[in-house]
Write a structure and sequence with these properties.
The structure holds 2 protein chains of 2 kinds. By secondary structure, chain A is α/β, with parallel strands linked by helices. Chain A has helices at residues 22-35, 40-52, 65-76, 81-86, 106-116, 136-149, 160-165, 168-182, 199-211, 230-247, 262-275, 293-306, and strands at 54-57, 98-101, 121-125, 153-157, 186-190, 216-218, 252-254, 288-290. Chain A has 12 helices and 8 strands. In chain A, helix 1 (22-35) crosses helix 10 (230-247) and helix 2 packs across helix 11. Chain A is globular and about 55 Å long. By secondary structure, chain B is α/β, with parallel strands linked by helices. Chain B folds into 3 domains: 32-53 and 64-280, Aldehyde Dehydrogenase, Chain A, domain 1; 285-481, Aldehyde Dehydrogenase, Chain A, domain 2 (3-Layer(aba) Sandwich), CATH 3.40.309; 579-833, 3-Layer(aba) Sandwich (Aldehyde Dehydrogenase, Chain A, domain 1). Helices cover 40% and strands 17% of the residues of chain B. Chain B is built from 28 helices and 33 strands. In chain B, strand 31 (778-781), helix 26 and strand 32 form a beta-alpha-beta unit. Chain B starts with a helix and ends in a 7-residue tail after the last strand. Classes of the chains: A alpha/beta, B alpha/beta.
């Protein structure tokens, strides 16, 4: 396990003279999925790896202990046992990377996990998710409460008002405070890339969050117009690479929003493997924020094992 | 699957892959392609007049799969008789094909496009099997480009008559596709030829003949009439290709391949009147500035060299990097090398497949070894797993100097040399310091810098922040040793057409001794020895070559008549200090002109090169002003010059005036064109802007026609300088005086020194040295059939562009022959500039 990112002092030089060429980024993104691919048992194994990287998520106004505990059960047993057995994976301890809920539902998760006797990370979004448009005092209090209730990971949103206005030191200072509030809990910083207006801003936001001590940088809340896209992610990964080169801290990456198919999940793993290397394909440095993805993966695994395409009712719902 | 079984059971279990997240093989099936080969019993004949033709006797050569060495099929070597049959079929088909309406030809091409589309996968696999290009590229880049090209040219077929008024097809076109990129290079040439009404004989390389054979099979299926496309296959020695090119009924040759072979072919057809389009080797540069997206540059290098085996002539094998970021980029490239995969070309995971020819890995290794010995650091990815095929690992060379062979010489392989530069000016100098001028790319986020560098690079294509992007609607083609002629775009279509008034050149019966032609000056033209006290005609002149703007003192020796000679202020004395008499039609000596020599050619080229740098960059409006002023000043001396013309040539009264007036008109005409041929926007499926800019060719040597001593000279030099070229003109050998008279007019019309240089003397002698001068970019020759042959032959050495008349008279008084598109074509060198756009994203 790599040392956690301790952060560094704000250094404006790291976000000056940033050059990003979006058409070139798009060309790379377009060919990632055509240059690499996996078939047969490789495909199944990669899909299982993707399962372990999922932050199984529900973020809805009508979340109640009922669906949250169902979600927790699915996180602990993401793939049918008979399918795992057929692939020789029943003892591999396959669970999702975490469950991800609103702060008020963290306690429900904690309760469900202990009754399941599962040690699965509980992630909570916080800081006025998804917009962050609440007073800083309250945003920080939200983090502390979630941690107190048992969250081991906090997904914060950055202050887009400051980012768009170019007040990067302001963004840094806030995230620094949020990091303190997280304490032992891992901090994922959501950049809301779809609201930043340019790839240069995406890079700056990535770098500022890492300087402020982010354990993960995350693309989006899932609530913006544009969420996790490959071009945006390439820019964020290159920022992670630069930060690692300069500080030797490894920061994780979490795309979220719009990742729904098993094929997509494999492409994201290809992206991680090709751009950052094998280390960044494991749940301690890679997560996928998703809710319906798991169902598709399970159906694909069903096909791999049985040779037949699954009906929706053949995989248990989350 | 061989590759799968090679994996041990344990390492390919789901459990172990889950732990390592390793890749497995993802091979594409080759069964359909092999079934097609089997349909032909893996033995191909020639395709002549709509059917397969297998002569009884005849040697064969085999084509192999570069990934495995497996023999795919055998093809015949075309004999004299085979070639004759194919050309005859094409010639016969030409009569009917060329008389179809454009729309009917378009429908045929459209049908071909539909059929190629139907067989996309088969075509992709075949190209990969035969050439070694990885499947991803065949499937995602090459074949879509082929389909796109056929549709695009089907469109040109339809609008041919509207877009190319006054032009007609050549007849039979020999298409010789590239051996490393056979499918695309064939399709684009084939379609351009067919769309314009030509018929075609293809002679593919024996290394990669299958795509041509498959394509012609698809054309047959699409219903293309018999004889319109024929294929003759060839042996390793390429005798078939030579026979085809030399065939008397082949009217045009379109070749893609190496400079060496291109030069040989040009010498072979010299003087025969065959048109040539040559796309040859390249050693292109990628220029990376400090304010560029370095990670995208890395992917640019991968796209352009480490994916397609660097086996295209536009590949940027010279990576010029701004000093402040050179080390950082080298580090990023070394890191990236670790994930570049070399392997079987049919495997979806291979970034680099096998090289096309078995000898290639050794050649590349020699270059790399030499660089290593010279102290360069070599970084390579892991080599291909297969030990059967012809692989070479992607390679980064750091520390090779600009003079190293690995930097200067073209060899086909996935090797890039990183060379640092200090300033933008130095980057441009380094990029242009090459025998080739195929393509280049500029990487910077500064639009101001990108456009400036793009305009200063000598290359047929310049990409900004990308490399090796292409499309049927965008022209491709090089300068210098990279050849001449374009593929793609409107200009690429024009390559396959000639003036409607053109008449066929007589078969090549001219014999020219290339060693001796023009090498020594012919004996001094004999002039009647004037009797004692004989009066010379009035206005005798002693004239010097004119190639500089340094004022020199007129010679102190007065003319016999004691009057001040009409000596131009800025003429130069000839190096040899000889002069020759000029006689009029009656044999009277009208004056003496300088006998220019090889050294005068050298001096004139120096002056012209100096002048062209700024002349070509002047605004068209400014050049127009000067040409209009020239016309105006010529107008003032209209009577005087016409009287002189009549006295010289003995033409009927009034004809001199007519010639002068036409010359004035022509100066106005070319003045008008100074700012009306800048280029076009290319309509390509690409987010951004693609334009073809018509740049100046450079320094053009012009041997003017004997007839129309004033109008011929004016028509040619004015066209050239109108488009920003500088000129070294050799005026009519017999009647040089009218051209020399323009000296004074040049002076009084603000024409900068060195833009037009005039060398008088023996035309063949001067032509020889113009052709043999490496820094003359083009030679136009309007003289004898012998001279035309010599010009084409000698110009093959440095691949300069030529425009010759094959000894046929050209009527410069006729506006169709004396001005127009053909002149613009020869006065310009296109450059395609690709500028991607798209900074805006999301909100």
């Amino acid at each position: 396990m790599a040392a956690r990112n301790a952060g560094v002092d704000f250094d404006e030089a790291w976000i000056k003279n940033v050059y990003i060429n979006l058409p070139a980024i798009k060309r790379r993104a377009e060919t990632l999925g055509t240059r690499r691919g996996v078939k047969k048992q490789w495909q199944a194994a990669w899909q299982l790896r993707a399962v372990t990287c999922i932050d199984l998520t529900t973020l809805a106004g009508d979340d109640t202990p009922t669906n949250v505990s169902r979600l927790c059960y699915k996180a602990a047993h993401p793939v049918r046992r008979d399918l795992l057995k057929a692939m020789g994976m029943e003892s591999a301890g396959i669970t999702t990377g975490a469950v991800c809920v609103y702060p008020s539902r963290v306690a429900d998760c904690k309760k469900a996990m202990s009754s399941l006797q599962a040690k699965i990370n509980i992630a909570s979004v916080a800081t006025g998710f998804p917009t962050g448009q609440t007073p800083l005092k309250m945003r920080l209090a939200e983090i502390r409460e979630a941690v107190q209730d048992g969250a081991t990971e906090i997904d914060i949103v950055i202050n887009r008002t400051m980012a768009i206005g170019g007040d990067w030191k302001g963004v840094y200072d806030e995230v620094r405070l949020m990091k303190e509030a997280c304490g032992e809990a891992h901090m994922k910083t959501i950049l809301a890339t779809g609201e930043l207006g340019s790839m240069v801003n995406v890079y700056r936001a990535s770098m500022v969050c890492m300087m402020a001590g982010a354990d993960f940088i995350k693309t989006s809340t899932g609530k913006e117009g544009v969420n996790a896209t490959l071009p945006v992610s390439l820019v964020m990964l290159r920022a992670i690479r630069d930060y690692y080169e300069w500080t030797k801290f490894k920061v994780g990456f979490k795309p979220a929003g719009g990742i729904r198919t098993a094929k997509d999940a494999c492409t994201w793993l290809v992206l991680m493997k090709e751009e950052l290397g094998d280390e960044w394909t494991k749940p301690d440095l890679f997560r996928i924020g998703a809710s319906s993805l798991l169902g598709d993966i399970e159906r694909q695994l069903f096909h791999h094992v049985t040779g037949r395409y699954a009906a929706p009712w053949e995989v248990p719902m989350a | 699957m061989a590759a799968t079984s090679a994996q041990s059971g344990a390492s390919s279990s789901v459990r172990s892959i889950f732990e390592t997240l390793s890749y497995g093989p993802v091979p594409d099936a080759d069964n359909v392609a092999k079934a097609w080969l089997d349909d032909h019993c893996r033995q191909f004949g020639h395709f002549i007049n709509g059917s397969w033709y297998k002569p009884e006797a005849g040697s064969q050569s085999q084509t192999q799969n570069p990934s495995t060495g497996e023999v795919l099929a055998s093809v015949l070597e075309a004999s004299e008789d085979d070639v004759n049959k194919a050309v005859t079929a094409a010639k016969e088909a030409f009569t009917s094909w060329s008389s179809l309406t454009p729309h009917v030809r378009a429908r045929y091409l459209y049908s071909v496009a539909r059929h190629v589309q139907k067989h996309q996968q088969l075509v992709s696999v075949m190209e990969t099997l035969d050439s070694g290009r990885v499947m991803r590229e065949s499937r995602d880049i090459e074949v879509p480009l082929v389909v796109r090209s056929v549709y695009h040219y089907a469109g040109w077929a339809d609008v041919r008559d509207a877009e190319f008024k006054g032009f007609k097809p050549y007849g039979v076109v020999a298409v010789l596709p590239s051996f490393t990129r056979p499918l695309v290079s064939l399709t684009q040439r084939l379609c351009a030829a067919l769309a314009t009404g030509n018929t075609v004989v293809v002679c593919p390389s024996p290394t990669t003949p299958l795509s041509a054979l498959l394509l012609v099979d698809i054309c047959r299926e699409a219903g293309l009439p018999a004889g319109v496309v024929n294929v003759v296959t060839d042996g390793r020695e390429r005798d078939g290709m030579r026979r085809l090119v030399a065939h008397a009924h082949v009217d045009k040759v379109a070749f893609a391949g190496t400079t060496q072979v291109g030069r040989m072919l040009r010498q072979l057809v010299a003087g025969t009147g065959k048109s040539m389009s040559l796309e040859l080797s390249g050693k292109s540069a990628m220029i990376v500035f400090e304010n560029s997206d370095l990670d995208s540059v890395v992917e640019g290098v991968v796209d352009n060299i480490w994916s397609n085996q660097c086996q295209v002539n536009t590949a940027g094998s010279r990576l010029l990097v701004h000093e402040p970021v050179a080390e950082r980029l080298a580090r990023k490239l070394r890191q990236r090398l670790e994930t570049v995969k070399v392997g079987d070309s049919l495997d979806k995971l291979s970034d680099i497949g096998a090289l096309t020819c078995d000898w290639m890995p050794n050649v590349i290794e020699q270059f790399v070894d030499e660089a290593r010995q010279e102290g360069a650091q070599i970084y390579q990815a892991a080599a291909g797993q297969s030990n059967r095929g012809w692989f070479y690992p992607p390679t980064l060379v750091v520390g090779a100097q600009a003079a190293s062979r690995i930097v200067t010489e073209d060899f086909l392989g996935p090797v890039v040399a990183l060379i640092p530069f200090r300033t933008a000016k130095e980057a441009i100098a380094l990029a242009n310091n090459s025998a080739y001028a195929m393509a280049a790319s500029v990487w910077t986020e500064s639009v101001t810098l990108a456009f400036e560098v793009g305009s200063l690079l000598q290359a047929g294509t310049v990409w900004i922040n990308c490399h090796n992007v292409s499309d049927a609607a965008a022209g491709v083609g090089g300068g210098r040793l990279s050849g001449s002629g374009r593929t793609g775009g409107k200009r690429g279509v024009l390559e396959y057409m000639q003036l409607s008034s053109a008449t066929p050149v007589k078969p090549n019966t001219v014999n020219v001794n290339m060693q001796t032609f023009g090498s020594s000056v012919a004996p001094r033209p004999s002039a009647p020895i004037p009797g004692a006290g004989d009066e010379k005609p009035a206005g005798e002149k002693n004239l010097s070559p004119y190639y500089d703007d340094t004022p020199i003192t007129p010679p102190s020796t007065p003319t016999p008549r004691g009057e001040q000679p009409d000596f131009p202020r800025n003429g130069k004395r000839p190096d040899g200090q000889y002069s020759r008499p000029v006689q009029n039609a009656k044999g009277q000596v009208m004056g003496h002109v300088a006998e220019a020599s090889r050294k005068d050619v050298r001096n004139a080229v120096e002056a012209a090169q100096k002048a062209v740098a700024s002349w070509s960059k002047r605004a068209g409006h400014n050049r127009a002003q000067i040409l209009f002023y020239l016309a105006e000043n010529l107008q003032l001396r209209r009577e005087e010059l016409s009287a002189q013309l009549e006295a010289l040539t003995g033409q009927a009264e009034g004809q001199g005036l007519q010639e002068v007036d036409l010359a004035i008109g022509r100066l106005f005409y070319w003045g008008a064109y100074c700012d009306k041929y800048g280029g076009t926007v290319q309509e390509v499926p690409f987010s951004g802007s693609v334009s073809e800019v018509n740049e100046a060719v450079g320094v053009i040597g012009i041997a003017c026609p004997e007839a129309c001593p004033l109008l011929g000279f004016v028509s040619l030099f004015a066209a050239a300088i109108s488009r920003g070229n500088a000129v070294i003109a050799v005026p009519s050998e017999k009647y040089p005086l009218p051209a020399l008279d323009l000296y004074q007019i040049f002076d009084t019309s603000d024409l900068p020194g060195g833009v037009v240089n005039i060398l008088t003397g023996n035309s063949d002698h001067l032509t020889r040295f113009l052709c043999e001068h490496e820094d003359v970019q083009a030679v136009w020759y309007f003289g004898s059939a012998e001279g035309s042959k010599f010009v084409e032959y000698a110009s093959a050495e440095n691949m300069k562009r030529t425009w010759v008349n094959y000894g046929q008279e050209r009527d410069f008084t006729d506006p169709v022959q004396g001005q127009g598109e053909e002149f613009l074509f020869h006065s310009t060198q296109p450059k395609t500039l690709w500028v991607p756009m798209g900074e805006i994203f999301a909100n």
